[in-house]
Amino acid sequence: MTIKKDYVRPLDIKHGRVDMNHGAGGRASMQLIEEVFARAFDNEFLRQGNDGATLPVPPELLEGGRLVMSCDGHIVSPLFFPGGDIGCLAVHGTVNDVAMMGARPLYLSASFILEEGFPLADLKRVVDSMAAASREAGVPVVTGDTKVVEQGKGDGCFIATTGVGVVPRGVAVGGANARPGDVLIVSGTIGEHGVAVLSQRESLEFETAIVSDTAALHTLVAAMLSAAPPGAVHVLRDPTRGGLGTTLNEIARQSNIGMLIEEAAIPMLPQVEAACELLGLDPLYIANEGKLVAAVAAEAADAVLVAMRAHPLGANAARIGTVVTDEHRFVQMQTRFGGKRIVDWLSGEPLPRIC
Amino acid sequence: MKYVDEFRDGALARGIARRIAAEVRPDRRYSFMEFCGGHTHAISRYGIAELLPEAVHMIHGPGCPVCVLPIGRIDQAIGIALDQRAIVCTYGDTMRVPASDSLSLMKAKARGADIRMVYSAADSLKIARENPGREVVFFAIGFETTTPPTALVIQQAAKEQLANFSVLCCHVLTPSAITHILESAEVRQYGTVPIDGFVGPAHVSIVIGSGPYEHFAEEYRKPVVIAGFEPLDVMQAILMLVRQVNEGRAEVENQFARAVTREGNLAAQRAVSDVFELRERFEWRGLGEVPYSALKIRAGYAAFDAERRFDLHYKPVPDHKQCECGAILRGVKKPTDCKLFGNVCTPENPMGSCMVSSEGACAAHYSYGRFRDVKVVVAA
Q1: Hey, of B52, B367, B373, which one would you mutate to test binding to chain A, going by the most A CBs within 10 A of its CB?
Q2: Out of A232-241, A249-258, B8-17, B124-133, which region has the weakest mean confidence (pLDDT)?
Q3: What's the CATH superfamily of B71-173+264-309?
Q4: Which of B110, B125, B132, B340 is 20 to 30 A (C-alpha) from A111?
């Protein structure tokens, strides 16, 4: 009797497509996980091969630190855009949400909802990009899940992620901590992500050299925290959906304060400004994926700004305004033109499915 | 940004502001109506009101296309989408205008209607070509600026003999709205709306030219200064209006000479008159029925007229009892005079149409200017 060698024909990544079998939990699911996901994300925790990952306790916890957990769904359309794709976006977005708590991000989870018919080549491209982003950030994907929905019930690929991190003792960053007198800082030029995604929309298609700013900001946050005296960084937030304008309003609401900002001080690429002008959009409401806003105690602002500008992701950091007492929690802006106006919450949806 | 920043130069603005302040007479007030929503938006967004002396007062006019759209017309579009299962294409802001039964096009979409937001009329034609098995209706709204593109797509549809494309035409006319305001009791009899002059339309005038306003200047003795939508355009136009008032002139002046001529765009006018004719009457939100103030599709293009194709009959629907959009559109009231403003009626939950578009007087004041109604304390 001859014994045949165990052999599984590899996935046809080049021409194959996701089908319902890939989500059924049988051999096809296992193969997809092994050949696409496990191979790309490979790390000691995934290799455990269990339903969940068993993780060591980070040292900060033993010294009075606290855990941070944040979840994020990604539904961007199109999946690939200038400067990135849904894969790296999922990593950056979640790492940033954890980092905005002043935390050191430690682990990620990733749940994929795939649509029947989605090309395996595209899936591999997304997963590889996600794995590269996670390696670059030093935050591994330690657990994951894959489901497949019938054609027409998804849009190629949705990714849901969770991030876990740890805040060292003594760091108290939160949206409710802005105080009158605080200096408001933005880490760089605004609006690139939204405009880059928008430029690829079928109905618009305009030619632009603008690329998404998608990036993981945790090292920038670490640099800011170490440059400032303990407790001087009061608020950190990444102005994603809704843009800078909406983020400032969120902080004003949570902290029960008002803000005065200077339009001329807000860093912006002329291309972004021009694209927004053309499309009738306000760059203040356009999504960013690699920028942060900070409210910092006035006496620490200079040191924080110097540290930010020394970091590649904070080179264009700028002081854009101050926190004031205002029971109405208005964000007011001195316009370049010389007048004053409110920067209100975003209303409606100017740009659907941006992240 | 080149060619744009020049029109938003703060130093120049302060210079014009000083001139206006120097030239206004201490013994009188100046009330000017900016007709267009584009001007309303610029005034609010750039904080122009703060640069003007107290004596100069701006009244927001009815020139916001979605603001003047009556509930009955939105109902028609929703009906076509929900009951006739047609694809309805329209411009962005139209999606959120409140209609009957707590619906809007956006809410109808959530109930399964196929409603597509388009950036240009031509996109709806493309959708019709791509969906030959479905009725595709372009819900056409707006003043003379958006009318020529609608005329062109109807001409094109006729040329291609597209059998599944039609237009629900709700295009309205600027000059008849201005006449209507000037003829209103508030302006003529009671004087509750003192209008000393008009900041005339920018883009509308590119199409129709400056000629059509000469009648108002002469007949009603009201100065008109056609102005671009950039903040410096508006400032300069206000200065020109102050000068006309001071000198007792009532003329049509063209501040927007870089784009507007006396005749306007003749090719666009030809396309419009080929496809459209005057409607005997059209209901405007706020102004009520205004005779000869809108366009309908000519019999020659009847095949592309959604009103004929779906046998639609117009049913007027009254606005919410407490909604003051009507009075606000006529310049009789300010947004803050409305009980609903800012509490029941906000941009997220608009009760009236003026709260929908960023060009609407209520939305502009809510989004950009409401801090003026209350004091803010700056920390020491």
Answers
A1: B367
A2: B8-17
A3: HypD, alpha/beta domain 2 (3.40.50.11740)
A4: B110
